[in-house]
C-alpha cells in the first residue's frame, strides 16, 4: 500500500494544533475562574531548564508550518514569537491551522523520497521526505503539544486525555 504523504501530514498536524488551541482555551478559562494572573501559566515550565508554555506553542506552530511547507517545496511565512497572552497563543495555533489548510494533496503527495534540507545552527541535515515527516516533524509537534498540555495540567487546569487526542 502506498502512503499518501498529504494524509499522513496535513490532517494529523491540523488535528494536533486544533487540540492545542482547545487546551489553551481551557487554560485561559482556568485562569479566569481561579482569578489567576494568566502570565503565570504562560511562563510556566515543568522544570527550570525546560521551555515555558508560550515557547512550546510557538515551536509546535513553527515545526508544523515549516515542515509542510518544506515538503511542498515552499518557504513558510514567518511568525514573530511575541505572544504573551492566551488569546495570542490560541490565535497562533489557529493561524497555523489556516495556513496548513491551504495545502493540497497535489503539493505534498509523492514527496516520500524528496530530499528535505533542514538548517540546524551551522549544519544542514538532509532527509528523505517520509523520514523527515515521521522522524522529525510529527514527533516534534507531538512533543511540544504534549509538553504544553503537561504544563497546564501540572498547573491545575482540568484536562484529560481526550483534550490531547480530540474528539473522534
List the helices and strands and how they pair.
Blueprint: H1 5-33, H2 38-42, H3 53-71, H4 86-100, H5 105-108, E1 115-120, E2 123-128, H6 129-154, H7 161-165
Antiparallel strand pairs: 1-2
Helix pairs in contact: 1-3, 1-4, 1-6, 3-4, 3-6
What's the N-to-C terminus distance? 24 Å
Strand % is 5-15%
CATH architecture: Up-down Bundle
The spatial strand order of the largest sheet comes to 1-2
Give the low-pLDDT segments: none
Would you give an account of this structure?
This protein is mostly helical and 168 residues long. The chain has a single domain (5-165), classed as Four Helix Bundle (Hemerythrin (Met), subunit A), CATH 1.20.120. 61% of the residues lie in helices and 7% in strands. It is built from seven helices and two strands. It has helices at 5-33, 38-42, 53-71, 86-100, 105-108, 129-154, 161-165, and strands at 115-120, 123-128.
